[in-house]
Amino acid sequence: MEHRDHREHRTLETHVPSRTPEETFRRLLDLLRAKDMDALADLWAEDGTADFPFAAGDSPRRLQGREAVREYLAGYPDLVDVREIPAVTVLRTDDPDTVVVEFTATGRTVATGEPYRLDYITVVTTHEGLITHYRDYWSPLAAASAAGTLPALLGALRTEDAR
User: Fold this and answer.
1) Which CATH class is domain 21-162?
2) pTM for the full model?
3) How far is CA 112 from CA 37, 76, 97, 125, 137, in A?
4) In a designed cystine with 50, which of 37, 40, 128, 134 is the match (CB 3.0 to 4.6 A)?
5) What confidence tier does 21 reach under pLDDT thresholds 50, 70, 90?
């Protein structure tokens, strides 16, 4: 009897030399709205990083590697239903592989059904169409408030301050 693997086969986004940092980021936003977190993680280089300097509580400050990004993103659609990105401003830098992006995401918080709106500033560096470094500046207080987890975050911050 022949055994067949029935798992969904997905295409890994590898080496896309014609894609600029801005195009890569806009693809990321499209995949975020589509809730395709696997394809979104595939935009990272195998050893790419993601930094969240303002992360607080249990949120990681750094992810190392594509698979760490994939694991981090896996549950995102269960937390936030991003429906629109109504504002995107891309600023070019002296480095042709790096852009700074200001954007707003809106939608609904899955747990509460409440509206979600968060502003971000993100610095993205790519190489051959893949993200090598992603630095995301967002407000952990605004994110926790939108997710309905603000009391838990404040409790975690109080615990950190007590140490």
Assistant:
1) alpha beta
2) 0.81
3) 22, 15, 39, 34, 24
4) 134
5) very high
